[in-house]
Amino acid sequence: MLEVKNLKVYYKSEEGIIKAVDDVSFNVKDGETLGLVGESGCGKSTLGQAIMKILPLNARLYGEIQLNGQNITKMNEKQMREIRGRDITMIFQDPMTSLNPIMKVKDLFVEIVRAHFPDISEQKAIEMGGSVLKDVGIDPSRMNQYTFQFSGGMRQRVMIALGLVLKPSFVISDEPTTSLDVIVQAQIIELMSKLRDEYQMSMLLITHDLGVVAQLADKIGVMYAGHLVEISSKENIYYNPKHPYTKALLDSIPNTDIKYKDLKYIPGSPPDLGKPPKGCRFAPRCEYAMDICHEQEPKSFLIEGSEVKCWLYENSQDLKHVNVGGTND
Ligand SMILES: Nc1ncnc2c1ncn2[C@@H]1O[C@H](COP(=O)(O)OP(=O)(O)OP(=O)(O)O)[C@@H](O)[C@H]1O
């Protein structure tokens, strides 16, 4: 189980402090998949990197991250190297730049396996790699090839196999299908869904694509400008969205039905995270904004099973103010 409590990631830059992730809390239970969605620049990748502790040097991390009861935030780099790949892994969006082109696939597997288990022989590491390659639909005989000899979709499969060779219990997948065409995208999503069940993994799925999370996630977190503005079950997010930003995001999904030819979009643009607006960060673009929204940052409220960071719900009935996020149902 992953528990993120009051996580903040601030970057130091020439323009000042960039509050990329600002007081975000949630949890992902064993076997569960949380989809994290939001526009480009809202802090999704930063959050994934914070959990892996692979943030750039100009980043500062505050708050707490617990993985299976271990406090990751307190671990040093040596301890992190032990759990990365073995307990928790991250599959990146661009296999072309993340995979070393001058290494054969088998050597990539040997490197990963032996970094964690130096006593495992090269032959055994290659066997382990071959078995996962088969699981991702690649003939193990391709072990002797270089990654540039694979198509985009196949490279993504190799990335997934490398990430899973040590059978981690938690996988972070950052835009796993962005660079692929739609047919290959669908195949990769199906593959990830199959592997997640077979390997019994929990997953944090980072994407701007609401279609991808619809297929894979159990619950969905919506991020806006460094804040987690809503988190709930997939069904609640799609059929009973509460936050005005979640509603706007759903309205802006392209619809193939010819009757709905007007694509809605969210007017304005997200704020500069170096100078976020006072109050709610979405208020300048929100059609429901009230005076308080421009003055005070909203608290998180629990309403109909959804945790929503929005003043609209302050006076709702069955409502409870949540101090630390992550619905605990
Ligand atoms: N190394 C860095 N130094 C300073 N600012 C950074 C750095 N990396 C990211 N940022 C800023 O932090 C904010 C969040 O970026 P992040 O990449 O996490 O967002 P994202 O939602 O994953 O976007 P995308 O989908 O485009 O990758 C952005 O304003 C970005 O410009």
Automatic annotation (TrEMBL):
ABC transporter domain boundaries: 2-250
Pfam families documented for this protein: ABC_tran, oligo_HPY
Compartments where located: Cell membrane
Alphabetized UniProt keyword annotations: ATP-binding, Cell membrane, Membrane, Nucleotide-binding, Transport
GO biological process, one term: peptide transport
SUPFAM superfamilies found in the cross-reference section: P-loop containing nucleoside triphosphate hydrolases
Top-rank taxon: Bacteria
Cell membrane in keyword set: yes
GO cellular component: plasma membrane
InterPro entries assigned to the protein according to its UniProt record, in alphabetical order: AAA+_ATPase, ABC_Ni/Peptide_Import, ABC_transporter-like_ATP-bd, ABC_transporter-like_CS, Oligopep_ABC_C, P-loop_NTPase
Membrane topology: Peripheral membrane protein
Descriptive protein name: Peptide ABC transporter ATPase
